[in-house]
Design brief:
Elements: E1 2-5, E2 13-14, H1 15-21, E3 30-32, H2 42-45, H3 50-62, H4 67-77, E4 89-92, E5 95-99, H5 109-127, E6 131-136, H6 140-149, E7 155-162, H7 168-175, E8 182-188, H8 191-203, H9 205-210, E9 213-214, H10 221-238, E10 246-250, H11 255-266, E11 272-277, H12 282-289, E12 291-292, H13 313-320, H14 325-336, E13 341-342, E14 353-357, H15 360-374, H16 380-389, E15 398-402, H17 410-417, H18 425-430, E16 438-441, H19 444-454
Helix pairs in contact: 3-4, 3-10, 4-5, 5-6, 5-10, 6-7, 10-11, 15-16, 15-17
The protein binds pyridoxal-5'-phosphate.
Pyridoxal-5'-phosphate binds next to helix 11.
């Protein structure tokens, strides 16, 4: 399988190069040249466990890696999950939940980043290369990225976060990791400062080349690939009389739900996707009106979805525009200039994706009500999805993706339920831990110097 860029100016490359490249040199996002149709194979995939299914699904997109390697790689990738099903489905009567939070940092990003870390290590080892990963985080992504590469050969990771602006628990999830290849940089500034430093170092091409600077952000195709697997699995598990489930996805970056869109295009039995946003509703507005325009960022109870520029949205748009890079550029350019971008032909976009946004009050009420009705505790991100799912009629079953364990957001969850219920042993254990971090000024030169001294 070859990969090409949404912007149309990058020569096709095989899977492993696409993984190492991340963002394409022309500024676009990489996508497989074709989306494989798997309808003929679905019957033989029914009942497979997550890792076996991953081998079949990913095999369609990889090509340049032996199947022996892939099976072993997947075993390693999911060894740290604390549930044998990796992504178990809970049946709570009319509410069905797929739990994506059984990885080491208790959020769905582990499903992709545990795989990406193992994959990086394998490709780098084969090629005799090394990589220095540089990232910026406002909380959750940093810990999942660190957990994905901690202790791996050929990889050093540097994660910047705004000092004092992540929760103490979020900070410990990063800084209490003991491995020597992990460097947590507490920056005396905002998350925007961290991102600006990162951008400026990635734009310094000699520096980038000298240190083999790499990113683990959500534009890496391997992250999407890992997520496609649980959509196929959910579709197969819940298909009933030929109708697949509706799958509801709380989203910010369009990363998770884009994988569902690809699974649907592959022919997985998924009736439709329900896109759920918090008050940062740019995507919900787009799917309902055809208009794509940035708004102000709202701080909500589901901080991992407080996003106004959805990086993976470009991939969806490109497929929706029948791979027309010129039309895509026109659309993205008018969006980037701050104008309203609109598709000619207008709304509604795709009748297999419905969308809605959920406010703070409804989020808290949904956590409380779900607990009262079923005894099950949802985190605020998952609650956005559960509330959204209730707004749409459906012929078949509806499955909500649970993207974080409730114990990651104890303030909101305990407040909604009225007693302290949001606990997890892994997080309790962290409470007495000491972290390891380096405090640095919000200054490119200081971060550059630190990376130079500690790079592989
Ligand atoms: C990152 C994240 C999301 C949003 O995922 P996208 O891929 O950005 O749509 C939702 N919930 C949690 C808990 C997350 O960490």
């Amino acid at each position: 399988m070859q990969y090409t860029s949404t912007r149309g100016d990058t020569p096709p490359m095989p899977f492993q190069d696409a993984v190492l490249t991340g963002l394409a040199p022309d500024g676009g996002l990489l996508l497989p040249e074709t989306i494989p149709d798997v309808r003929g194979e679905l019957d033989s995939w029914r009942g497979l466990g997550f890792v076996e299914l991953a081998e079949r699904v990913m095999g369609k997109f990889i090509g340049d890696m032996s199947t022996v390697d892939l099976a072993a790689l997947l075993e390693r990738s999911y060894a740290r999950f604390d549930d044998p099903a990796i992504v178990p489905i809970r049946d709570l009567g009319s509410l069905k939940i797929m739990e994506l939070f059984h990885g080491p940092t208790l959020a769905f990003k582990d499903v992709a980043l545990q795989f990406l870390g193992a994959l990086f290590e394998q490709i780098l080892t084969e090629r005799g290369l090394r990589m220095n990963i540089l990232g910026a985080t406002s909380g959750d992504t940093g810990s999942a990225a660190i957990a994905g590469v901690q202790g791996r050969d050929g990889i050093e990771i540097f994660i910047m976060f705004p000092e004092g602006r992540t929760s103490p628990l979020q900070e410990l999830q990063m800084t209490a990791v003991p491995d020597a290849n992990v460097h947590c940089l507490a920056i005396d500034g905002s998350f925007d400062d961290c991102q600006a430093i990162m951008k400026s170092l990635f734009n310094d091409l000699p520096f980038k080349a000298k240190h083999g600077l790499g990113a683990v952000n959500s534009v890496n195709w391997a992250r999407v690939l890992a997520q496609i697997v649980y959509y196929v699995q959910a579709g197969l598990a819940l298909e009933h009389n030929g109708v697949g489930p509706a799958i509801c996805v709380p989203t910010g970056n369009f990363g998770n739900i884009f994988a569902g869109y690809v699974a649907m295009k592959m022919g997985a039995p998924i009736d439709r996707l329900i896109l759920a946003t918090n008050d940062n509703d740019i995507l919900a507005r787009f799917f309902n009106t055809g208009s794509y325009q940035r708004g102000a960022v709202h701080f909500t109870l589901s901080p991992s979805m407080d996003i106004q520029v959805a990086s993976n949205f470009e991939r969806f748009l490109f497929l929706h525009l029948n791979r027309d890079s010129d039309a895509l550029r026109t659309f993205m350019d008018s969006f980037a200039s701050g104008e309203e971008a609109r598709l000619s032909g207008g709304a509604p976009l795709d009748d297999r994706i419905v969308a809605t946004s959920v406010d703070k009050v409804t989020t808290l009420r949904t956590i409380a009500q779900t607990y009262r009705d079923t005894g099950y505790i949802v985190d605020p991100h998952t609650a956005v999805g559960v509330a959204a799912a209730r707004r749409f009629e459906s012929d078949g079953p509806v499955l909500c993706l649970a993207t974080a364990h409730p114990a990651k957001f104890p303030e909101s969850v305990d407040e909604a339920i009225g007693k302290p219920v949001a606990r997890h042993p892994a997080l309790e254990a962290l409470k007495g831990a000491t972290g390891r971090k380096t405090s640095l000024p919000a200054d490119v030169a200081a971060v550059r110097e630190f990376v130079e001294q500690h790079a592989l």
